[in-house]
Amino acid sequence: MKIYLGFIALGLLFSAWTFALIHEHDSLVAEPHARILFGGDMMFDRTIRIAMEEKGGDFILSCLDSVLKGKDLVVANLEGPITTNDSISRNSMPGDGNNFTFTFPPETARLLYDHNIRMVNLGNNHIMNFRRAGLLETKKYLDEAGVDYFGDPDLSDMDRVVRKDINGIPFSFINWSDWTSDNTDITAMAVKKEHEAGRVVVVYTHWGEEYVPATDRQKKLARNLIDEGAEIIIGSHPHVVQEHEIHKGKHIYYSLGNLIFDQYWMDAVTHGLMVEVIFTKDGVRLVKEIPVVLQKNRQTCPQSALAALLGQLF
């Protein structure tokens, strides 16, 4: 009898859980919402450029298509300019100064658009690798391809805001960069202004130290930006996945690590993170983490896809 009653209790618990999931789904479908996918650092030079020349640009991103498609917006960091300049890093060696000077081929902008990456952050430590002329070319190619961008170093910190309405939800995308932004107080003021205007504020940062956990400085700034009205903070630059924190009910991802890059010298740089977020007009509703793996053939794939492939092989 006790066993029978136990099964009834489990059945009722499962039914309640299932009802809650269905209710959550129905509630979400019934109200306006936007599905935005965030990724980390994208670099299309060096051996990534060589792979694009040999196999086509689509090869680099094709393994991610199952994750990229169907989103209202995909946002990631463009770790360098798109220009007509010859690459000086493609045959360089680690430690060589040229190894860290990037330029991406002009077709990169259209490649991003075709794979649904239609907003990029420009506020980072490589966007000025070919000076202002390279920045202007970058914006020209992105504009022609229909890829939005924010964090433009040509603008003042208060003006580095891109406003975009998605399915009736007003978003403001704001960048903080340790290299191209001037004053954290001004960025905080911009966040507060957008929040008080009734907009959903997304802060995408380029900050911190490479290959280590988040610094105290990052944490202090992130929490301050949340206090001023940021709905979520997404970080980039360290090339490894850093901590995830919830501050006053708001998500902080200090670094998503690499998305498209040719670093393979330790496990942490080959494993990045994408974050799918469902927003309503009231802010973040649901968050889903999607681990990705950078492979030596220069493709990046969802970790789940690689696990399924291994399962088929063995």
**Principal-axis shape:** globular
Given as residue ranges, the uncertain stretches (5+ residues, pLDDT < 50) are: 1-23, 309-314
Topology as H/E string? HEHHHEHEHEEEHEHEEEEEEEH
Q: How many discrete structural domains?
A: 2
Helix percentage: 25-40%
How many separate helices? 9
Rg: 21 Å
Question: Which features characterize this protein?
Answer:
27% strand, 9 helices, alpha/beta, Purple Acid Phosphatase, chain A, domain 2, 314 residues, eight-stranded mixed β-sheet
Describe the structure.
Mean pLDDT is 91; it is low at 1-23 and 309-314. The chain is built from nine helices and 14 strands. It has two domains: 1-30; 33-313, 4-Layer Sandwich (Purple Acid Phosphatase, chain A, domain 2), CATH 3.60.21.10. It is α/β, with parallel strands linked by helices and 314 residues long. A hairpin with a 2-residue loop joins strand 5 and strand 6.
How would you briefly describe this protein structure?
The chain has 314 residues and is α/β, with parallel strands linked by helices. The chain has 9 helices and 14 strands. Helices cover 34% and strands 27% of the residues.
